[in-house]
Design goal:
By secondary structure, this protein is an all-alpha fold. The chain is about 75% helix and about 0% strand.
Length: about 120
Amino acid sequence: MARADRLERLDRRREGLEEDYREALIAALKVTAAGSWGLFDHRQDRHDRARAGPVVAELEAMAEEIADLREQLLLDEPFALHQQFVAARGPVRAQAVGEPKQARAWLERLATEAEQP
């Protein structure tokens, strides 16, 4: 019974951290949607990176802790939201949408996902 209780606590902790990650990402996306570049690191500008660095580092730290908990819980799939965020970062083609527009699209998608049961 103690093992089941421990696993339940770990799973609640994981769920809480995943929600914290989502909230932190949404807050960062709102800042980016308002015109602040750097979260997606598209321009790879040192000033943009410095501005977004603390937020990205916080998200990475939370994602690492979530990954550790998922491993302890023997969950095979990675934390999808972080995987999607990492995949969206980095250089893009010249004709790609800017970070503010991309952030607005992310916010819309996350809002739609939150409404689904």
